[in-house]
Each structure stands twice: as structure tokens, then as C-alpha cells.
Design brief:
mainly beta; 48% strand; 96 residues; elongated; two-stranded antiparallel sheet
Amino acid sequence: MYKCQICGSNSEPNTPAHKIIIAARKATYPFRARANACWKWIKERRKFVHTDDRGGQGVERVREVLACAACAMKFANSANGDNAKTDFRNDGKRRR
């Protein structure tokens, strides 16, 4: 059960929430030497090594809201929602 952050209505129990990305920005991540620690197979034996993180470019979410199914569909079909990305996954489950 949750409250829609667009229309303000309360949802029924066991109704999935939809996350709508309102604002996003481009991000650049720098190169990081020896950032990740892991085990690798080197010449038929495992060795603990530190690997580099290449960095790169991506998109970060600046603002996102929880919405009911009706508001999520309205936002996806509206003229303002053409450039926005919607995430229609169930918000009640934890992701790893």
C-alpha cells in the first residue's frame, strides 16, 4: 500500500507501484586504479588481485516518483512523457 505522488490517492493492498523518472542528468565517471578486489584464475591457480575500474559515461536519476498504474500510463502517453523513461517494475521487492 502506498500513496501516489502524482495524484495523491492511496492504493489498494498488493497493488504494484511504478517508478517514473522525472529528471535525469548525464554523468562522467573517472578511471580508478585498483578499485575492485576479486579472485582470478591465473595459470591454473586462483589469485587475489585488484582490478581497475574503467570509468565511463552514464545517466543518473535526479528525481523519481512513485505512481499508480493509471498515472504511470498517463505520464507515458503524454507529450511530457515522450522523453522520460519509465520503470514499470514492482517496487515492493528488493533488488540486488
